[in-house]
Description:
Strand content of chain B: over 45%
Largest sheet of chain B: 7 strands, mixed
Oligomer: heterodimer
Number of strands of chain B: 11
Number of helices of chain B: 0
Number of helices of chain A: 0
Shape of chain A: globular
Largest interface: A-B, 26 and 27 residues
Number of strands of chain A: 12
Order of helices and strands of chain B: EEEEEEEEEEE
Largest sheet of chain A: 6 strands, mixed
Distance between the termini of chain B: 37 Å
Radius of gyration of chain B: 13 Å
Shape of chain B: globular
Amino acid sequence: AQSVTQLGSHVSVSEGALVLLRCNYSSSVPPYLFWYVQYPNQGLQLLLKYTTGATLVKGINGFEAEFKKSETSFHLTKPSAHMSDAAEYFCAVSENNFNKFYFGSGTKLNVKP
Amino acid sequence: DVKVTQSSRYLVKRTGEKVFLECVQDMDHENMFWYRQDPGLGLRLIYFSYDVKMKEKGDIPEGYSVSREKKERFSLILESASTNQTSMYLCASFFPGSTGELFFGEGSRLTVL
């Protein structure tokens, strides 16, 4: 089975600072990779995804992530944090058939004024 | 707009009660999923369904069952609720021909006393 590791259950940054949320996965086949965001008392919504093609993927709200096969990583970044970015972020992996999605344990992002 | 609706946002039940969590999607998606979300554990797959009357166990099916009588509706059933089933339950749907985006409901927070 696949596994997804998110380093750091809580990350705190100042407004305007760089956001870096880490995700590593284990997969014996090329995976499909996703980042989802969850705002309080809501379901998850897709931030960005990597399926094929360019390894640097841009998503909504200024976020981007880079697929690095050699490092089995898919870290999420944003150059300048905004207060509205405070939420929980989940990395997820799926294999080709999309029958199963494997989620990391989540990282709560706190943005300080 | 895509919509996945979970009928109950908050439920409080007593140990031993039968609990139904309903999920309806309006996108004609074939695949539907039930996840359980707990702090520090991320999302864990309980059951999924890829067609009407079809179901597959996920990673933590014990204590749960599901029903999919119509394509748009996927129900999660707790035959005899226990306190360790207190959790947030998330329903999601997916279209296999797409590039992998899961669409989530807003969640059902269940408390078992």
